[in-house]
């Protein structure tokens, strides 16, 4: 089972990283793949309640790959951790199949309470470089989280979210129109007054010339 997972991780890199050449090169030289291999073993020990060995493996993996995956995290198949440096995946995080995670991504929690506190990513989710997804909520299938976004709320399937805090800008590939700001009656009266003042001053200046 673990060997099959490792093979799918290598295939994922070959399919989705245009720079990848052979399976052997990916196996030997891609630290994202190494982190996933270490994690598959660490997670096995975690599931069999050998928490110290599980944490030890995860710390060794972090030392060699600069990718920190808690042994409790549940990762699917065909995950691509590209470049990888600085990726942090928390204990109760879940990552679906065929997700792509770039360098500097955090799947983290907010606060210190125990229990489910990290996000759950659906299948085919792309998390851009430096993005942070914080909290125990779900991100739907086929979502894209922009580079450097900070996502604090759940997303439906097929949504692209950008910014801090991240907001949906596309659904099913179609742009979501930006919210128009409504002007209150008070603001409208103030603006009207300002325009009248400006008009009056303009007339005065024209008369002086
Ligand atoms: C979010 C992302 C997937 C959007 O891709 P897209 O669907 O092609 O979207 P567009 O390029 O049409 O951009 C749509 C809007 O989002 C904005 N946007 C895109 N990326 C953004 C980002 N990272 N932060 C803030 N706004 C962003 C664009 O400026 C545009 O705004 P506008 O409509 O006001 O002009 C992509 O920009 C991204 O961030 N990918 C991550 C790539 C990455 O991390 N690569 C690492 C390689 S090492």
UniProtKB/TrEMBL annotation:
Subcellular location(s) of the protein: Cytoplasm
Q: Which family does the UniProt entry place this protein in?
A: Belongs to the transferase hexapeptide repeat family.
The record's GO CC annotations read: cytoplasm
Pathway in which the depicted protein is active: Amino-acid biosynthesis; L-cysteine biosynthesis; L-cysteine from L-serine: step 1/2
Q: Which InterPro entries match?
A: Hexapep, LbH_SAT, Ser_AcTrfase_N, Ser_AcTrfase_N_sf, Ser_O-AcTrfase, Serine_acetyltransferase, Trimer_LpxA-like_sf
Instruction: Provide this UniProt record's keywords sorted from A to Z.
Output: Acyltransferase, Amino-acid biosynthesis, Coiled coil, Cysteine biosynthesis, Cytoplasm, Repeat, Transferase
Task: Quote the protein name from its UniProt record.
Answer: Serine acetyltransferase
**Domain Serine acetyltransferase N-terminal, chain residue ranges per copy:** 2-36
What does the record give as EC number?
2.3.1.30
Give me any GO biological process, just one: cysteine biosynthetic process from serine
């Amino acid at each position: 089972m673990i060997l099959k997972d490792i093979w799918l991780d290598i295939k994922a890199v070959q399919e989705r990283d245009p720079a990848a050449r052979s399976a052997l090169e990916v196996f030997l030289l891609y630290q994202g793949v190494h982190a996933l291999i270490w994690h598959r073993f660490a997670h096995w020990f975690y599931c069999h309640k050998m928490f110290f060995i599980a944490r030890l493996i995860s710390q060794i993996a972090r030392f060699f790959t600069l990718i920190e995956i808690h042994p409790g995290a549940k990762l699917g198949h065909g995950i691509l951790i590209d470049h990888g440096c600085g990726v942090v995946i928390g204990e109760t995080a879940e990552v679906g199949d065929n997700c792509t995670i770039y360098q500097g991504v955090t799947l983290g929690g907010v606060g210190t309470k125990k229990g489910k506190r990290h996000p759950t990513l659906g299948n085919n989710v792309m998390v851009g470089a430096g993005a942070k997804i914080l909290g125990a909520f779900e991100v739907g299938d086929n979502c894209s989280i922009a580079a450097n976004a900070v996502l604090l709320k759940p997303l439906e399937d097929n949504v692209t979210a950008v910014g801090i805090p991240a907001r949906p800008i596309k659904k099913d590939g179609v742009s979501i129109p930006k919210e128009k700001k409504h002007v209150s009656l008070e603001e409208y009266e103030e603006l009207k007054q300002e325009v009248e003042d400006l008009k009056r001053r303009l007339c005065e200046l024209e008369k002086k010339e």
